[in-house]
Amino acid sequence: MLYHLLFPLADQIALFNVFRYLTFRTGGAMITALLVSFIVGPYLIDALRSKQKGGQPIREDGPPDHLLTKQGTPTMGGFLILLALSVATLLWADLSNGYVWVALGVTIAYGAIGFLDDYLKVTKRDSNGISGRLKLLLQAVVAGAATMWITQMLPVDLATTLAVPFFKTALIDLGYGFLVFAIVVMVGASNAVNLTDGLDGLAIGPVMIAAAVFALIAYLIGHAVFSSYLQIHHVPGAGELAVFCGALIGGGLGFLWFNAPPAKVFMGDTGSLAMGGALGVISVITKHELVLAIVGGLFVLETVSVIVQVASFKLTGKRVFAMAPLHHHFEKKGWSEPTIVIRFWIIAIILALIGLSTLKLR
Question: Hey, which of 55, 73, 134, 311 has its CA 20 to 30 A from 159?
């Protein structure tokens, strides 16, 4: 909005020329989202606490101390991130850019699915919300619609292709299979972040780290000169997603202020499904789906730990981990919650650096 209102006035007021720069608007979106979170956060938490008398239902099969330390904490705090992200993006992004709208649309839609899940959990006083099949179906429908929209906007030679990291010109044309692949990426990323969201501050840290990486990736692939120099595929217009990523980082930082141990609010599925969906759709637009698996490797590890645990128990009757997802395993081993969170953040940073290396190692 500010871009459309103020940049046309640059001829009269030279200062407004700064709105042409993605870096300036990305920084503005980050600060705006942070401020919105700080201002709205206390009021939202009070409202959630008053509406949710018992807070988020705690899993009875989870770590025993969670029933004591986390009981009564309100959920649906992801709404704060969504609000800050949406306001900042609408203020600072070029709203004529279709990629911005599809990214925002997927994020809000996944947030709505998560909100429904959280609402049922709170009202029914049960840790189970909507059925897993229904949740996956709704996510797949949103992802499918988004993918068809994205393929219409991408350059023809990139529309249905998969780029391979570490190779300069490697493109695998998946044809109609790209629709299925993109759906798997978005739905998988969304649920992977959801599985990771089990400790105070655990999920939002790696989400912000991944968003920072993809802000840079979006900026580079949207810039013809930089993408040519780095020999990565140029996607005209995708650079505007850097503003969206900046808003996501700012909203995440603001949420972390209230979610830091001991958390005053949980993001719930409202936040975790939305944040994962945001990362998934950005990776599809920027043609860096496989890089997301590296940058978001922590989410992958958490998901694999659940798959391995379930498969092992069904096949052999034995558990590989003391408890899944992986962060609960370390809780059972005696690690303190802050220790797990900080060490997992360190792992996320290392994986992010490896992911960034794919931009140059070609």
Answer: 134
